[in-house]
Amino acid sequence: MEYYPGPGRNHLFVPGPTNIPEKVQQAFNRGNEDHRSPAFPKLSKSVIDDVKRIFKTRTSTSFIFPSTGTGAWESALTNTLSPGDRIISFRLGQFSLLWIDQMQRLNFNVDVVDCEWGAGADLGALKSKLASDNSHSIKAVCIVHNETSTGVTNDISAVRAILDSYCHPALLLVDGVSSIGAIDFRMDEWKVDVALTGSQKALGLPTGLGIVCANPKALEAAKTSKSVRVFFDWADYQKFYKMGSYWPYTPSSQLLYALRAALDLIFEEGLENVIKRHNRLGQATRLAVEAWGLKLCTIKPEWNSDTVTAVLVPPHINSGDIVKVAWKKYNLSLGVGLNKVAGKVFRIGHLGFVNELQLLGALAGVEMTLKDVGYPVRLGSGVAAAATHLQKSTPLIASRI
Ligand SMILES: Cc1ncc(COP(=O)(O)O)c(C=O)c1O
Q1: Which of 8, 37, 75, 211 lies most in the core, judged by the most C-beta atoms within 10 Å?
Q2: Residue 3 domain-assigned?
Q3: Which of 73, 117, 275 shows the shortest CA–CA distance to 186?
Q4: Which of 267, 290, 322 is at the close of a domain?
Q5: Pair (185, 115) in one structural domain
């Protein structure tokens, strides 16, 4: 039996899964259909093509797997690399840690660059590894664009510039699970070879799709890579694409309709406006944190994330208590601190289909919760700081001008 959820609505401010807009819910509320019918490609081709727009790629091929971000990781790795291949990767939070763990379990030779949790990727270490790699033993650089556990956004254009400065042919594989569709991501411009995301973050869909884009260099690498892959094999998809935008197995047609609806919402708002909205919400949240007298987990402003804010709490407070009280008392869902920062950090997710007033409600909930757990905060201080910024920076809604 479902538990009684309380009056009103839940304020879902974890950094994914995110709020599902009404239009997306309506789009997937439908029966099953024949995924081999001549009519199916009208839907499938449109999402295969249009999903690339949020990656800002024209040259890549997209693959939409019935999976999650974790499956998309596996797809990126096993299609392009062979067991024993040397990979450089940065461990700077829970998701980069888990991706590295997957790489190791898939028998790649991972050259791990450990970075402080809260810092971005150590690009100096990348430079020195590339500088000493005359034989081009490094086959790939794998990096998480937005580390969801610490609220750190890495500079992918800088990674590309470093690879180019050494004329190094290593593939660049990027996890954009909590960035793509929310934070500026330029797959073609940054020559990212494989980029990936999941459906339950910026796209505001239910969990269940892993979305991967592979550029021509990555597709070429897939022809010779020796990793065992079955479910995630791009070649199977390409075979079925030739027959007209079909899947090698049964796709979730409901999720594809949901994806269509989410893409339409993003394009209606305008991708650049979506990115600006995330920046506005991120900035407002950071101003609230400052007004509360708390610090971010993110060590330098250049790494601040516009999709998730990880807030450090004073040593005498357990951040897990904040998350519990917020949920129990205010029906507000915040993200817990993970692994190394468990108990020390709570996270406010502000990605996907979320607007200014929703955020202010969440920030009010955080303030009250902080007071509940004994942190001396002046009620209204964070909300006022955030509202001041939002009042000045929020444009008119495009469709209402
Ligand atoms: C940056 C990042 N990468 C990968 C994942 C894993 O995705 P999933 O849980 O969809 O498998 C997550 C999940 O939160 C994430 O935040």
Answers
A1: 211
A2: no
A3: 275
A4: 267
A5: yes
> What whole-number distance in Å separates Cα of residue 397 and Cα of residue 387?
17
327 with 354, same domain: the answer is yes
Residue among 146, 178, 203 whose CB has most ligand 1 atoms within 8 A, to mutate: 178
**Is the residue at 204 inside a domain?**
yes
- Mutation test residue for ligand 1: of 99, 100, 148, 199, the one with most atoms within 8 Å of CB: 148
CA 16 – ligand 1 centroid, Å: 8
121: domain CATH number is 3.40.640.10
Q: Which ligand 1 atom is the nearest neighbour of the CA of 145? A: 1
Residues 189 and 275 in one domain: no
* Angle formed at CA 95 by CA 90 and CA 99, multiple of 5 degrees: 65
**289 shares a domain with 253:** no
Whether 16 lines ligand 1, by a CB cut-off of 6 Å, is yes
Beta carbon of 69 within 6 Å of any ligand 1 atom:
yes
Q: Is 398 exposed, middle or buried (CB count within 10 Å of its CB: 0-12, 13-18, 19+)?
A: exposed
- Give residue 314's domain range: 11-18+270-400
Long-range contacts, stretch 338-343, CB < 8 angstroms, 24+ apart: 338/93, 338/94, 338/149, 339/94, 339/97, 339/149, 340/94, 340/117, 341/117, 341/118, 341/149, 341/150, 341/297, 341/310, 343/318, 343/319
User: Is the beta carbon of 202 within 6 A of some atom in ligand 1?
Assistant: no
Going residue by residue through the chain (401 aa), what tens digit of pLDDT does each one get?
677 878 899 999 999 999 999 999 999 999 999 999 999 999 999 999 999 999 999 999 999 999 999 999 999 999 999 999 999 999 999 999 999 999 999 999 999 999 999 999 999 999 999 999 999 999 999 999 999 999 999 999 999 999 999 999 999 999 999 999 999 999 999 999 999 999 999 999 999 999 999 999 999 999 999 999 999 999 999 999 999 999 999 999 999 999 999 999 999 999 999 999 999 999 999 999 999 999 999 999 999 999 999 999 999 999 999 999 999 999 999 999 999 999 999 999 999 999 999 999 999 999 999 999 999 999 999 999 999 999 999 999 988 88
- Residue 320 sits in a domain of what CATH number? 3.90.1150.10
Q: Is any atom of ligand 1 closer than 6 Å to the C-beta of 152?
A: no
Q: How far is the CA of 330 from the centre of ligand 1 (A)?
A: 26
Distance between Cα 352 and ligand 1 center (Å): 15
Residue having the nearest C-alpha atom to atom 16 of ligand 1 = 148
- Is 260 in the same domain as 286? no
Say how many Å lie between the CA of residue 276 and the centre of ligand 1: 23
